[in-house]
Amino acid sequence: MGWLESIQKAIHYIEMNLLDNELTIESIARAANSSVFHFQRTFSILTDITVSDYIRRRRLTLAAQELINTDQKIIDIAFKYGYETPESFTKAFRKQHRISPSEARKKKGTLQSYNRLVIKIQLEGAVPMNYRIIEKEAFQIVGVKRTYNYENGENTQNIPQFWNDVHKDGTNDRLFELNNGEVKGILGVCSIEKYKQDEKLMDYWIATAYNGEVPEGFETYEVPSSKWAIFEIHGPMPHAMQDTWKKIYSEWFPSNPYEQAGTTELEVYSDDDPNDPNCYSEIWIPIK
């Protein structure tokens, strides 16, 4: 099953179960025939929102429709769409619609509707993607890491701040100086191997390839031996990196006979000016 088809099946499953308060990311990922981590990550890359955000927006959209089209009590609608108290429902409703449920019932103000997502196949691929396939033995990296919960989008929200921190405190410069491995540059490394799937945790490393004794203030990690698809990126950060991730999932995987291996993924950053239109970077994805 291709990724686009998997996402569409998952969206259909979500829509059929929006009123089920037991709807879980695990059951949605199973509908997509995917692991929780890779489904959540792919969904976010392709749609720019997390799965939980999509569910919340759709439920509040439908709740608003019921408020203006039925006489059901607000407390009953709140419970129907997964809110245990009127207060929690009002808070979430106001955040999305910018008016309260009672104001919506009185038709005071406008509502913000999030419609069902539809994955459409478009003619793409006119702009070539430069990539290569290599097999590489395991290699050591050193750096700093933080652990995030990926179910609620914590990784997407907080990793940019992590990068800001390592630039401010000089860690980024130290890593460039330490780099003595075959992979050149600073690495953004996403790893979930040591966690159980139901923990929904991932480690994100900012690191560099390094052979030798681990320097003070850093930790070490061994990137597993893998067959890698390595994609070249030319353009300013972060947009060029984000755009390439989208193209990988929406164009490259559907057009090639590979699947993700499900292990550690890398982003490789050079010392080019990140604002330069010719800034060079890479994405490394383990494949099978």
TrEMBL record:
GO terms for molecular function: DNA-binding transcription factor activity; sequence-specific DNA binding. Keywords: DNA-binding, Transcription, Transcription regulation. Residues 8-107 form the HTH araC/xylS-type domain. This is AraC family transcriptional regulator. The lineage of its organism: Bacteria, Bacillati, Bacillota, Bacilli, Bacillales.
